[in-house]
Structures are given as structure tokens and as C-alpha cells.
Write a structure and sequence with these properties.
The complex is a heterodimer of chains A (about 230) and B (about 260).
Chain A (H helix, E strand, L loop, with lengths): L1 E12 L2 E12 L3 E5 L6 H9 L6 E6 L2 E2 L2 H6 E4 L11 H11 L4 H10 L13 H13 L5 E5 L7 H14 L5 E6 L2 H4 L5 E6 L2 E7 H8 L3 H8 L1
Chain B lengths: L1 H37 L5 H35 L2 H5 L4 H34 L2 H38 L7 H28 L3 E6 L2 E5 L5 E5 L2 E4 H24 L5
Antiparallel strand pairs in B: 1-4, 2-3
Helix pairs in contact in B: 1-2, 1-4, 2-4, 2-5, 4-5, 4-7, 5-6, 5-7
The chains are: A alpha/beta (about 230), B mainly alpha (about 260).
């Protein structure tokens, strides 16, 4: 079932054109790896779908509706930075999400245990890795139809990356779409069903991950390196 | 409504320490002024007048600080990732800011009025009696007048802060908002006078002038002009507020959070 449709999408910030003629369609049940070098437009793309940026041209339909209050209620967006005020403790962030979203308390508490995070910890005291774990736990605990994860592994050490990938896989449910934007392809390509390469704001590749591997006989990471 | 209450709740929780510190600082400052001046050898009537003027300065500084802090919060708390990923209508963000601003303004006004009356009563001079009588009779109208004007000025500046975040495609709208707000803030008085000349009908309420002189070595005193209310002026204010509310909501629908 189609949950996200992007037609003829352009985004420019004045002189700089960040996205050019993007046409994509996503179904429920997909895990999509969105890869591209820095500045290729990955974050801009996710932010437009999440409703943080406006398209310069084109249309974004989420579950058949334009981006707005409804789309925000079914999209769980993990940004590439902390979005919570630092006066909060972990328990405040979860109460906050519970007040505004359809939230799975049990899943959140399990994720906190999995990441060995204590509810009473203040956000000020969290390391970058712990903050990433918390934000991911909050995002995955939302009962959303679309999960947009922007660089969930950046600045994270390799052992923690494995833990994060395990948690993503364990908590992904089939009735949802998950788009993971990253430049750490090696880590994500094993879990992504579909691969999209963005280069200078344009779609350079959009293909089933398994099909690419079978046809090209190389990993997605190697393909990416050979292309850009 | 539940969303408005929730979002207001989290902002107040985040600012609770700042509120406590501000309250203690204000009380400390007012009593420091009182204690410092009380120990000087001066005519008590003149002393109560000086204290009143100083408290008036504290009041002005306080409302400016409240406005600045809320304008900064619009930029950092309302127009940020967290607020814009929540499934909220723009009107919720507008109501949140309106409620927080009014709560802070009213709390500050209540505290400063209470402290001023308390200190003036301690002095028990003819000046303090005159001030207390004046504000007891006309305080409510002055208060509403001040609140209305203050809210309009605050949200006009807010519009410019929000317009700053409009995308490139809306650059003409951004310029129109800037020019419109600045022109209104600069020429509001001229516009009022112009309209009053055409429509001179007055409302049946007014605030008489306050004039108090103390004769001593140097003649000192405190005065406030007579305030009259014109129908056209009140209508213009209501109209401007309605336009601001409309634009605030429209702009929030168009802004981008670039980060």
C-alpha cells in the first residue's frame, strides 16, 4: 500500500538548488536506505516529508494527504541533533511524547533497558551516543506509519552502531515505512530492502537492494564508491 | 485545548527556576531601594515620590525584559524542530505564546503593584495617598489600556521574527511584513491623530490628569496627562490585533525550520 508519494519535487534556498525533480513512491513494509555524500539533499528531503521545510515546487502526499497536522501525527522523525530542551530528564521526554503522540510506553522502557539508560538521567548529562540512543528509542516507540531516521549512526562508535541497528530491526513493524538517511552505507545496507542514491539533489539510483547485489555482484557500499 | 494546556505546561516547567529567581530578584531589588532611600535624611513626601519613580523604572525595565525573553523564546522554542514535528495547528503555537506572555506580564504586574502599594502605604504621605487614590479609581482602565497596547506591540515584533523564517519563495511577503510592522510601530501615533481628526467621536470614559507638586528647596512632582479614548482609535486597535492574529497563524503555516 502506497503511504508516501513525491512528485516533481524541487527545493531551492535562493541561488542553491538542493533537490531537483524528485519523483518517488513508497509503500508500507519497506525499509529504505537513502544514501548520498554530504550535501546531496538527504536531510532536506526528510525535512520536507516531516514538514519542517516547504517544497519550492512539486507535491508530497503522506497517506494521500498534504503535509500538515495529520502527516505529523503518523510520521516519526529522528533528527540529526537533540531537539529537547536540556532542562528535561529522560522521563520528561517520554512524558512529552506520550502527551502529544500515540506512544508505546512498554516498548520505550524496553529500549531504555536495552541501551542501559536510566529514566532519571538529565539530558545535560548524556553523551552524544546516549542522546542518539534516547532519540531513537523515542522515535521507535511512537506508533507511527512512517519512520524517518536522519543519520542515526553519525558520531557513534562501532559497537554502539550494532546495538542501534539491532534495535531498529527489532522494533520495525511491517505496517510501516522506514527511511534511513545516512552516509554510513556499510551498516545500513544489510537491513534496507530498497536503495536510493541521492547525488547533487537528484535521484542517481532507486532499486531493490537484493537485485543490485545480484546484478552488480558488489555491495551497495562498493557501488556507491564506484559511482561517486 | 488539551494540546494548548500540554504545550504551555512544558514551557512553564522549563522556566520555573527562572521565574523563582526573577521573583526573588524583584523583591530583593524593591526592598533594597526602599532600605537605601529610607536611611537618607529627606522630606518623607519627596522620598515616597522618588521611590514611586524608581519603582516605575523597575516596572518599565521588567516589561521590556519579559517582552525580550518571549521574543527570544518564539525564535528558539516555538520555531524549532520539536514544535514543528508535533501534530499541532499553528493556532496552538499562537495561543501558547499569548498565554505564556500574558501569564508572565500579569504576574509581574501583580507583584510590582502589590510591592508599590505596600511601600507607599508604609510611607503614609500625602503623595502616597494621592497615587493610591488615583490608581484605585483608574487603575483598571489604565491596566487594560496598557495590556492591549503592549500585546499589539509584542505580536507585531513577533511577526517580524516569524517572517525571518519564511522560505525563499515568500521573500516578497517577508519584505511586506517587515515594512508594514515597522511603519505601524513608527507612525501609529500619526495614524491615530489623522483618524481622530476625521472621526472625533469619543468614548464616555477618560482618565483625568494626575499632577502632584511638592514644594521644597526645589519644586518636584509627578504628573501624568489626561487620557481620552476615541471610538476610531479603539476600533483601529481591535482591527490591528485581528490582522496580527490572522498573519501570525498564516506565517506559522509557511515558515521553515532550517536549523
Amino acid at each position: 500500500m502506497e503511504i508516501l508519494k513525491i512528485s516533481n519535487l524541487y527545493k531551492d534556498y535562493g541561488k542553491k538548488l538542493t533537490l531537483k525533480n524528485i519523483n518517488l513512491s513508497f509503500n508500507l513494509g519497506e525499509i529504505v536506505g537513502l544514501y548520498g555524500p554530504n550535501g546531496s539533499g538527504k536531510t532536506t528531503f526528510l525535512k520536507i516529508v516531516a514538514g519542517l521545510l516547504k517544497p519550492s515546487k512539486g507535491k508530497v502526499l503522506v497517506d494521500g494527504k498534504e503535509v500538515g497536522v495529520y502527516s505529523k501525527s503518523i510520521i516519526s522523525y529522528l533528527p540529526d541533533r537533540n531537539i529537547f530542551p536540556l532542562w528535561m530528564k529522560i522521563k520528561d521526554t517520554y512524558k512529552f511524547y506520550r502527551d502529544f503522540f500515540d506512544f508505546d510506553d512498554k516498548k520505550f522502557k524496553n529500549l531504555l533497558d536495552f541501551f542501559s539508560l536510566k529514566e532519571d538521567l538529565s539530558l545535560k548529562a548524556l553523551s552524544k551516543g546516549d542522546m542518539e540512543k534516547l532519540l531513537l528509542s523515542l522515535s521507535l516507540s511512537r506508533k507511527a506509519k512512517i519512520y524517518l531516521l536522519d543519520e542515526p549512526l553519525s558520531g557513534i562508535d562501532p559497537s554502539t552502531r550494532d546495538k542501534i541497528i539491532t534495535s531498529i530491526l527489532k522494533n520495525y513493524h511491517e505496517e510501516s515505512l522506514m527511511i534511513i538517511a545516512t552516509h554510513l552505507i556499510n551498516e545500513i545496507e544489510t537491513i534496507a530492502d530498497r536503495t536510493i542514491f541521492l547525488y547533487q539533489g537528484e535521484i542517481a539510483l532507486d532499486e531493490n537492494t537484493e537485485k543490485i547485489r545480484e546484478q552488480k555482484k558488489i555491495s551497495i557500499n562498493e557501488l556507491f564508491k564506484s559511482m561517486f | 485545548m488539551r494540546n494548548v494546556i500540554n504545550i504551555v505546561k512544558y514551557e512553564i516547567l522549563g522556566k520555573k527556576n527562572a521565574y523563582l529567581i526573577s521573583l526573588l530578584t524583584l523583591i530583593g531589588l524593591v526592598f533594597a531601594i526602599y532600605a537605601r532611600l529610607n536611611s537618607t535624611v529627606m522630606n518623607r513626601d519627596e522620598l515616597s515620590l522618588i521611590i514611586f519613580v524608581l519603582l516605575f523604572v523597575v516596572f518599565l525595565v521588567g516589561i521590556i525584559l519579559i517582552a525580550i525573553s518571549n521574543l527570544m523564546d518564539i525564535n528558539s522554542k516555538d520555531l524549532n524542530y520539536l514544535s514543528f514535528t508535533l501534530p499541532l495547528k499553528p493556532s496552538v503555537l499562537f495561543l501558547k505564546r499569548m498565554i505564556i506572555y500574558l501569564i508572565e506580564l500579569l504576574s509581574f504586574l501583580i507583584v510590582i503593584i502589590f510591592l508599590t502599594f505596600f511601600i507607599l502605604r508604609l510611607y503614609n504621605t500625602s503623595f502616597s495617598h494621592a497615587v493610591i487614590n488615583y490608581f484605585s479609581s483608574y487603575g483598571a482602565i489604565l491596566f487594560l489600556d496598557f495590556l492591549f497596547g503592549n500585546v499589539i506591540a509584542f505580536f507585531l515584533v513577533s511577526l517580524m521574527i516569524i517572517a525571518k523564517k519564511l522560505p525563499y519563495e515568500n521573500r516578497i511577503l517577508k519584505i511586506i511584513i517587515y515594512i508594514g510592522c515597522i511603519l505601524y510601530l513608527l507612525y501609529k501615533g500619526h495614524l491615530n491623530n489623522f483618524l481622530i481628526k476625521i472621526f472625533p467621536q469619543k468614548l464616555p470614559i477618560f482618565i483625568p490628569a494626575f499632577d502632584y507638586k511638592i514644594s521644597g528647596k526645589l519644586e518636584t512632582g509627578f504628573s501624568a496627562p489626561k487620557i481620552e479614548y476615541f471610538v476610531v482609535e479603539v476600533i483601529l486597535r481591535i482591527l490591528v490585533l485581528a490582522i496580527i492574529i490572522f498573519l501570525y497563524n498564516r506565517l506559522l503555516n509557511k515558515v521553515e525550520i532550517r536549523g
